[in-house]
Amino acid sequence: MDFRFNFAVDENENSENEADAHFLLLCSPKDEQGSREKSREAGDPAADSSPKLAAAKHQEEAASKKKLCVKAAKEHSIPEDLNKVLENKVMETVLGLSYVKLSVVEMTCSGDADSEGIVSKSVSSHSDLIPGVYEGGLKIWECTFDLMDYFSEAEIEFANKTVLDLGCGAGLLGIVALQGEAARVHFQDYNSTVIDEITLPNVVANCTSAGRKKDRKASKPPSKRPRKAEGSPDVLNRCRFFSGEWSQVSQLLLNSNKPCSKYDLILTSETIYNPDYYSALHDTLAQLLDRNGRVYLASKVHYFGVGGGVYLFEKFIEEKNVFTTKIVKTIDQGLQRCIMEIAFKNSC
Questions:
Q1: pTM of structure
Q2: Residue 134, Cα to own-chain centre: how many angstroms?
Q3: Which of 149, 222, 267, 294 lies most in the core, judged by the most C-beta atoms within 10 Å?
Q4: Which tens digit of pLDDT belongs to each residue from 163-176?
């Protein structure tokens, strides 16, 4: 367990039993990986007896889902009453950032607030991933913190940049960009429920500090009460929120009546676990990244049980011959993880 997770234990020592719920989000590498594997193998009796049969079945089901539906893109409006966004939300704090407590969302999110039914499906199936239905955005995955650490270490500049938090989930990467005074930050997740119930509330909750740099190491204890929106609306004026499949969101952005320039930076974490999605991800990056822009991608080296990972994605990119890749950081604690920088060939 690395220092970040030990830190999370220390800051919650006085929170009685809330620490257990906290670790639903900040699980150890072993727990997280087991959870992902369980998600993909649940209900498949062949999985234990024959990995090859399980893999074949997974590919067949994925192909079937692709043929059945493509999740349409949607832009989410920002409510005028920001207190409504945080209504019934309980916030916790990690590395200086506020985020919605997942266990409370699981208890309170139903009906129209979860039109996709992903909260109930995730809870009832004990699954952190239901391919084609729910893609893990309710939880904060480990590599998100790896990428946040890298931003500090490499002194990545966000000021006046246009940024896309792709597969944003909790939106912490985009929030860090906002705190770094990015000119524009867009958030995208597969699920609309994630945007409405997790991402947008997190952005609103962090608006009070979005205009200044903040020491993420000096974290405060988690708040046990619903948060009131006291942030400055001008921060939200720099934000847009989207849900839907990557290819659909790309088309929505490119064909939108609102002018949308290409992104200087695209940030994404734990989005290459499934090789079935590589083509859509690659095309999205190619369509939305500025010619001299950079993608920062954080990932496990390998996702057991699914087959995705850093080296497979690197090979895919190399074969496409559009981008260059560079591993800028490797993390060896627990399951090996990497930060990859991606840029167009012949870019500055």
A1: 0.76
A2: 12
A3: 267
A4: 999 999 999 999 99
